[in-house]
Structures are given as structure tokens and as C-alpha cells.
């Protein structure tokens, strides 16, 4: 009886040790997985087309909920500036997704007067600041951060003063162009063609994700937290389930945008006003 009791305790300690080793091993495997956060630009325009826009908006949100993923939406202010579209934006925040700033009129900074550009950011800020899920993080239209160091510095200084972070991306495709081709297939009731198009598009996303992972691995000697830039459009609404499944099957792990943007590659150093100024980083707001 005594031997059995000692043996049981020994087995218990051995099993506990093995469980710890297994847990650490699984943790290491999880850390080795490439990670990605989903972000969506622009949003659907419900003005004059509320039923279709609301339908596609719901498809994306339902997919995210069913796949247990939190994303971030960067609404275009000019689109969101009506009650129907704003209701769609609020639906994202109400379901736990973050809402950022994509400016009001989607101008490229490098081809815009800087002061006018900052006013455009402010206009979108005032429109969206009270929306559930609001996060003071700017996604530059076209990912364009300015034509000159001076222009870029002026915008970054303003963002820092207002507590803003920057929402860059490592993975993107010309999906705004591809959705036009997809919608043509839908309008022609070419279901076979549309299905093939979705399949090919999903493969393009995976190919681009792998290419970016290889690029950043070579540059950083590590895997960064990737951010996938998609647009809220019919193509991504219909393709999103297969994109998520394909990424997971390819070994990718989904994280929140807040977690991804904490990676050092998304931080911005403010340009020093003089040679003696210490390095200061742009804020990194804590959001959903």
C-alpha cells in the first residue's frame, strides 16, 4: 500500500512535469506561427443603397464573429457622414471591433497641402470620435506618408500632439480594382466565374502573405505581427471565410489589431526639431 502511494505521487509529479513541458512546447510553437491582424478600409456606402450595403456589412461582421476574430475598420469620413452609413460603422464598434481614422476625403498626403490634409484628419476625427470602438489611430490613404521629410514631420508632430498612432500594413493587394471584376461577374449572373474568381483571389492573398513573411523574416530575422489591409467591399465580404480558413491552414494565427500594432515595426519616431533633441516615439494608443 505504501509503495503504491509513493508510486502514485511520483507518477503525479512526472505527469505534471510532462504537462509543463508540453505546455511550453505548444507555447513555443504558437510563438513560431506567423501572426496577422485584419483591418478594413473605407466601409460600405449606404446612402441611396442601404439594403445592399447593410447586407454586405453584415456578412463581414457575421464572418468575423463566427471565426472569433476582432478586426479594425478605418471608415472614410465622406462615406460615413450620413445616418445610414454611420449605422453600419457603429455596428462594427458595437460588436467589439476598433474604429480608426482614414481622413475625411481620402487625399494622398504627397499631393495635398499639409494644412488642408490636417484639417481633413480633424474633420473625420470629429465625426467618428464618439463612435463605439473609437481608436485614435490614422491609416494614411494610399499608405502615403508624405512627399518630403518636412511634410511628413509636420503631420507626425500633429498626430503626436493629438495622441494618435499610425496604422500601417505589411500585406495588401489591389482589391479595390479586383472587386470591380468580381461585381461584373455577379451582375452577369456568372456564378461559376465568380466562384473561380474568389478561389483565385484567396490564393493571391496567401501568396502575398507568404511573400511578406519571407521579406520581413529576411529583414528583421524574426516574424513580425503582420497587418492585412482589405477594403470593405463585396469581394472581401464573400471571400473572407475562405481567406481566414486558408490562412489558418497555412499556419497563420490571428491576433487583434491592437496587439499587432504594438510590434516595433509600426512605431514612428518623431523627427527631432534640433540635433540635441532626444528620440521620441509617436503614441501607441491602447484600443480594442
The value of Rg in angstroms is 23 Å
The counted number of beta strands is 10
Largest sheet: 8 strands, parallel
Query: Overall 3D geometry?
Result: globular
- Relative strand content: 5-15%
Listing every helix as H and every strand as E from the N terminus to the C terminus, the arrangement reads HEHEHHEHEHEEHHEHEHEE
Based on secondary structure, the structural category is alpha/beta
Through-space gap between termini: 56 Å
Total helices: the number is: 10
Helix content: 40-55%
Average residue-wise pLDDT: 88
Poorly predicted regions are: 1-31
Structural commentary:
With 288 residues, the chain is α/β, with parallel strands linked by helices. 54% of the residues lie in helices and 13% in strands. The chain has ten helices and ten strands. The strands form two sheets. Strands 1, 2, 3, 4, 5, 6, 7 and 8 form an eight-stranded parallel β-sheet that branches. β4, α6 (149-161) and β5 form a beta-alpha-beta unit. The longest helix is centred in the first third of the chain and has 31 residues, at 2-32. The protein is globular. Mean pLDDT is 88; it is low at 1-31.
Amino acid at each position: 500500500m505504501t509503495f503504491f502511494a509513493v508510486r502514485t505521487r511520483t507518477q503525479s509529479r512526472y505527469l505534471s512535469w510532462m504537462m509543463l513541458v508540453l505546455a511550453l512546447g505548444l507555447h513555443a510553437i504558437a510563438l513560431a506561427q506567423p501572426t496577422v491582424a485584419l483591418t478594413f478600409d473605407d466601409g460600405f456606402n449606404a446612402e441611396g443603397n442601404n439594403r445592399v450595403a447593410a447586407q454586405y456589412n453584415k456578412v463581414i461582421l457575421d464572418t468575423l464573429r463566427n471565426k472569433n476574430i476582432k478586426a479594425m475598420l478605418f471608415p472614410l469620413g465622406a462615406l460615413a457622414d450620413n445616418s445610414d452609413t454611420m449605422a453600419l460603422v457603429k455596428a462594427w464598434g458595437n460588436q467589439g471591433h476598433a474604429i480608426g481614422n482614414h481622413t475625411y476625403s481620402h487625399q494622398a498626403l504627397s499631393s495635398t497641402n499639409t494644412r488642408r490634409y490636417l484639417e481633413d484628419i480633424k474633420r473625420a476625427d470629429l465625426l467618428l470620435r464618439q463612435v463605439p470602438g473609437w481608436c485614435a489611430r490614422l491609416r494614411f490613404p494610399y499608405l502615403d506618408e508624405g512627399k518630403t521629410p518636412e511634410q511628413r514631420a509636420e503631420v507626425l508632430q500633429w498626430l503626436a500632439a493629438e495622441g494618435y498612432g499610425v496604422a500601417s500594413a505589411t500585406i495588401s493587394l489591389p482589391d479595390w480594382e479586383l472587386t470591380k471584376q468580381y461585381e461584373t461577374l455577379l451582375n452577369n449572373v456568372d456564378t461559376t466565374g465568380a466562384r473561380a474568381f474568389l478561389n483565385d483571389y484567396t490564393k493571391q492573398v496567401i501568396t502575398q502573405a507568404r511573400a511578406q513573411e519571407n521579406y520581413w523574416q529576411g529583414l528583421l530575422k524574426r516574424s513580425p505581427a503582420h497587418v492585412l489591409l482589405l477594403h470593405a467591399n463585396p469581394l472581401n465580404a464573400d471571400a473572407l471565410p475562405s481567406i481566414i480558413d486558408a490562412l489558418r491552414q497555412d499556419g497563420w494565427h490571428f491576433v487583434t489589431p491592437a496587439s499587432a500594432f504594438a510590434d516595433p515595426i509600426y512605431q514612428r519616431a518623431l523627427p527631432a526639431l534640433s540635433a540635441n533633441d532626444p528620440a521620441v516615439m509617436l503614441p501607441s494608443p491602447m484600443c480594442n
